[in-house]
Amino acid sequence: YIPKQNAQMFEYLTRLLARLEKNKHIGVLVVDGSRSSRSKMSSLLSRHNFITYNAANAQQSLELLHDHPDIKLMITDETLPDMTGVQLVAETRKLYDKDQLSIIGVSSNRSASLLASFIKSGANDYLNRPYCHEEFFCRIVQNVEYIEQIEAIRQAANSDYLTGLPNRRHFFNQVSNTIRRGLGCMSLALMDLDNFKNINDTFGHDYGDVVLKEVARMIMRHFSRFHVSRFGGEEFCIFLPNIEHEHAIKLLNDFREDISKKVIKSKTIRHSCTLSIGVTNKQNRTIESMLSIADQHLYAAKAGGRNQVVG
Ligand code: GH3
Ligand code: MG
Ligand code: MG
Ligand code: MG
Please, which domain of life does this record's source organism belong to (predicted)? Predict the structure, then answer.
């Protein structure tokens, strides 16, 4: 039996420990012309496990941001040797959106208009000097969590819930960008599990899910260099840029063979499955037209007896 207060304390400490663990991977950049202010803030941040970076001026801070993508939060003083803090915020926002980097402006003169200028130029928050440690950390953690939440939402929006693979929309965005950059030879493969409805009907939907997850895991392993996605139901799509068509077909055929030999186990069931693949390598085309040709080839693979690659 744990009294309520202890239970609350336990929950609080658990959350705090989890936070401290996460902080080990988060960079915080302190921009301040004064060495003593910089080191004071940095040591406070280190105490909470953050990776700290220091810049004595705006130029240095932009360089550090460029070189260290782990920086999720920048704290800038109001006056810097080479520009004002507000100017630095505006310059930084031209390069990094609010969903990539949080910014806190620090002011010593409690000027209401300065605080407003910080926010207007793109800061997420501000801090008045002198500050107590508790307020300092509340603001730091709140702004770091904001970035983390956006990242979590982005991750959820881009991936398929069952398998964790990129979903169709994310795949379209990535592949359209790659095609627009106009790389040489590229292949697009559409794969579909064979007689998957039978697997569901015979062994149950839960086992069907196990099969889908295992196939996805093997896709990630075989095609980690390429763009992959769960396209829907029991269909997967793979885009292979910068590769000779014969080589792409060989990779896909090796994968098809691996899947057909794989015994997929659940607690009570051991079974295997096969898949059919349609592939195209037409150049100078849109993703939509490549998909439509791959789909025709997939149809031919099914009609030809399944468990085969048609390209
Ligand atoms: P074919 O060889 O022609 O592709 O036959 P098929 O049975 O695989 O094709 P069909 O399109 O008739 O059936 C696909 C099945 O995939 C039907 C659907 O219930 C199942 N399915 C789609 N999404 C999921 C899922 O997330 N989990 C499970 N377990 N089944 C799914
Ligand atoms: Mg299908
Ligand atoms: Mg079908
Ligand atoms: Mg199928």
Answer: Bacteria
Full pLDDT tens readout for the chain, 311 residues: 666 788 888 888 999 999 999 999 999 999 999 999 999 999 999 999 999 999 999 999 999 999 999 999 999 999 999 999 999 999 999 999 999 999 999 998 778 789 999 999 999 999 999 999 999 999 999 999 999 999 999 999 999 999 999 999 999 999 988 888 776 789 999 999 999 999 999 999 999 999 999 999 999 999 999 999 999 999 999 999 989 999 999 999 999 999 999 999 999 999 999 999 999 987 767 889 999 999 999 999 999 999 999 99
Catalytic residues, by residue number, are 234
Give 179 Cα–ligand 1 centroid separation in angstroms.
Answer: 30
Q: What is the ipTM of this complex?
A: 0.96
Task: Give CA–CA dist 87/66, Å, rounded.
Answer: 18
Q: pTM of this prediction? A: 0.79
Alpha carbon nearest to ligand 1 atom 14, residue: 197
Ligand 1, residue 207: give the atom nearest the CA.
29
Which residues make Cβ contacts (< 8 Å) with residue 309, sequence separation at least 6?
249, 252, 253, 256, 276, 277, 278, 279, 301
Q: Are 129 and 135 in contact (CB under 8 A)?
A: no
Atom of ligand 1 nearest to the CA of 306: 2
CB 250 within 8 A of CB 244: no
Residue 193 Cα to ligand 3 midpoint, Å, equals: 8
Q: Which of 73, 90, 76, 91 is nearest to 22 (CA)?
A: 73
d(CA 28, CA 137): 12
Distance from the CA of 200 to the center of ligand 1, in angstroms?
A: 8
Burial class (CB in 10 A: 0-12, 13-18, 19+), 224: exposed
Find the residues whose C-beta lies inside 6 A of ligand 1.
Answer: 162, 192-197, 200, 205, 208-209, 212, 233-234, 302, 306
